[in-house]
Amino acid sequence: MNHFKKNALSRIIAYFSMEIAVDERIPTYSGGLGVLAGDTLNAAAAVGFSMVGVSLLYRKGYFFQRIDEKGIQREEPVEWIVDDFLVEQTPRVKIQLENREVTIRAWLYEVKHNDHTVPVYFLDTDLAENDPYDRTLSGFLYGGDERYRLCQEAVLGIGGVKMLRALGYEKIDRFHMNEGHSSLLTLELLREQMAAVGHEQASWEDIEAVRSLCVFTTHTPVASGHDKFPLGLVKQVLPFFPVHGELRDIFCCGDFLNMTYLALNLSHYINGVAKRHSEVSRMLFSHYEIDAITNGVHVPSWLSSPIQKLFDKYIPRWKEDIFSIRYAISIPLKEIWEAHLINKRLLLDFVNREKNMGMDIDNFTIGFARRMTAYKRPELIFTPLERLNAIARSVGPIQLIFAGKAHPKDEEGKKIIQRIHAIRPSLVPEIKLVFLENYDLALAKRIVAGVDLWLNNPKPPFEASGTSGMKAAINGVPSLSVLDGWWIEGCIEGTTGWSIGMDVFQLQEAKEGDYSNERDAMALYDKLEKVIMPIFYKNPEAYALIMRSCIAINGSFFNAQRMFMQYVLKAYY
Ligand SMILES: *Cc1c(COP(=O)(O)O)cnc(C)c1O
């Protein structure tokens, strides 16, 4: 082993995330952020890197989504048996919340590849010795009020560092904050630093020592994605929080604790999750250097088995060298198409069995599944419905498969689900529309591989990266997407998929009024009607060629191993 590799592999990285999706049976995630965290830990295990994950245990999950015939979402606690999947660890640590001591325990999950293991610890406060309120902190992900969230984030950040020490991790080379929720970990690192050098008051050198340990990834330009807490509440919940003194501005943002600014101030390396997202983040946070590492998906987790069989046949050792997926370009088109039909059959059988839809394998099938919220514009393809109806009549039948949860407090998101349900009676018989309940890892895996086209039309510039289109690409499913997030990098028009509406340069030049939902919808319809559906219905070989290019060109790059190696070079080393 060469010197660099040996050196790199001896480093230990602690990866903190409010949500981590490592197993479809463990409901400790809500969506993209958690999936990315899980894929990152998997990539670390696959390349043999020493990483340890830290998150919270949610005994009731995010929520189980039920939708009635009117499209009304009901949220139920997820029922799951923690010790079926996780192993209780012996150490206990304590943190102070308000005037109480809260005891924390950890549960272990091991991410394994070949003979390498990456441990993930889920922190839990549901212990008999804790106050009843504190026991509820390992209840719901993104539930409760401000106080509940702040307490959870203290358990994650402060409790997480303490737990790692108690578990025997004395030397940790980097603390990676995956989004700002965990940034209270910097306070605990500062306390450790001050104790080590015998300081009563923190000095600039102490701050620098913490900064040299921390890296931060920001994941969204949407304001609600950046937690902030009024200092009054912070002072109550965390009586030791430094709201006075010379270093105040490092910790406080006016009258608030802003978790994003705390992470920005105390990290020496900061990145956004796609090139465009970093540019947008540099505008939002203009005093910071913000690099870009574009997201990727862990290929073995997202690859359907028919496509995996083709990889095994035509690209031996693809798992060892992820870039060799590029050579998918020599897989015979016929075999790509046949593998796709197996995936499509599986998905449509599932839809037909669950929802009695009678969807047909010969018909053009579009997937749209992600969090149901306004900026993702799930209804764009129905704006106006007459145009969609006309396209299905003139070019060919369309099958639409939707899925996604709305956050329990996102009233608009919930209304979107209702309105999509209400559209059904106004569709011509050539269009079939289904909304599948409870979007999760397992359902995502079915949908991304089984549709003919992956649709994504968020309002720019709010999609930081987006990853579900990458999951589709690795399975040979092209995207039709607005040029935002990863798609600016991934779209080669007509080769890996198609764009909707303005490109980045046009968006930057655009004046008030140039940009509208109606214009984007028009562009979407034009692409479907004049470009994509004619290829699908009249020239399947050309469609298979695009599918193959998706795998070779985008699958070989937008994967978690490439992403992880960039983190090693830029952030961990
Ligand atoms: C990948 C994934 C997401 C993220 O999808 P985006 O397109 O990035 O918004 C959300 N939920 C689940 C279950 C996923 O697998």
Automatic annotation (TrEMBL):
Checking InterPro entries in the record gives:
Agluc_phsphrylas, Glyco_trans_35, Glycogen/Maltodextrin_Phosph
Looking up Pfam families in the UniProt record yields: Phosphorylase
Q: Which residues form the signal peptide?
A: none
Q: Where does the source fall among the domains of life? A: Bacteria
Q: Which family does it belong to?
A: Belongs to the glycogen phosphorylase family.
Q: What is this protein called?
A: Alpha-glucan family phosphorylase
The scientific name of the source species is Candidatus Methylacidiphilum infernorum
